[in-house]
Amino acid sequence: MAILILFACIVTLVLLIAWAKVNTFLAFLLVSAMAALLLRMPLRLIPQAINKGLGDTLGSLVIVIVLGAMLGKLVAHSGAAQKIATVLKNTFGYKYVTWAMSLTGFIVGIPLFYNVGFVLLIPIIFSVAYNYKLPLVYVGLPMLASLSVMHGFVPPHPSPMALVVQFHADLAKTFIYGIIVAIPAIIIAGPLFAITLKNMRSSPTITLQGKQLPDEELPGIAISIISALLPVLIIGVTTLMAKFYGNHVEIKNISDFIGEPIIAMILTICIATYTLGISMGKKITAIMAIYVEAVKDIAMILLIIGSAGILKQIFVETGVSTQLAGLLQGLSLPPLFLAWLITAVLRLCLGSATIAGLTAAGIVYPLLAHSGVDASLMVLSVGAGSLFCSHVNDTSFWLFKEYLGLSMKQTFLSWSLMETLVSVIGLIGVMLLNTVIK
User: Which domain covers residue 291, as residue numbers?
Assistant: First the structure.
């Protein structure tokens, strides 16, 4: 009965948003309350679950998203994004723009979490799209596909890293296998799939592209790239320091502190305020006005992200995810495929790739002892399943939809389908690797 209620809630949410045109934030709140009542959650616990779902989701994201939006707005208004877009255009040309975007997402996605990478790179997507006069989806999807794949497959991202620990997998081998599986997934779900979306038009309400400036007013390419990608550099350098100087406790502690996305973004904003603002003759009041405008742009996005976390929390606390996974565990299927399937179904129901992956890990772990499957491949199988078919209960779905100004149908046909391709291609890659290394 609980499983039926879960699916009924998901269907209701889709209908409220897509058919009844209810505000997305309100729709999530209504469906979350409905789910809690139908699943017989004690009334006194419902407000606690709502607060926890909203707080836990935004608590880990709101600072990064807000600071990322500020940086993005500054990168756009200072002309740095225009400069980077111009260099990309001159280097790769019109014909290979989607491959250039994929390569950027691949490199940046190694050390950077998806949400951080998204808000950091979205201004570049806007600038490249406007410079080439191409649809935002066609330009942006390859880069975001790369970010998503790296986030789901490759340590040190949260879910793969946690799975490595739970499955007692070899970290270096998991990283290498992850890169091997990630490359074809990125190519197929990125530049190749983007070709089918070249005629998809959007109407973005968020304007991250600043006005076009004369070349002489643009910052230098070095300052532009360093300022825009400074969080990547900070996190990457501190990660390497923690690895090579791990025996020195103070160095490791400092590296871990500075390498936290929140701290890296705070440092970046401080530095970029000078390099892309004050040093270019902008008054501090003008820079702060840019930051205020950036926060206004993402206010509703933050509410939608938080409300999606509420629904996820209701499903987790009522135990629906455990019941669903238990039903699937009894199926007679190859261990790697079963792990992928369980995680994919949990992803469909819960939205969060990390929660789906970690929930599935506890169920499929016993399979390792009896099947002899390589633990690193099990990490990747679960990681691939956790990316399956992102839809309305996933915060990334709404980030993509709202920033790029797409309809629900367009988002399903672009973002959701891309994530499904990534997940299925990832599974195929894992199964092929399993055949090769046996």
Answer: 2-437
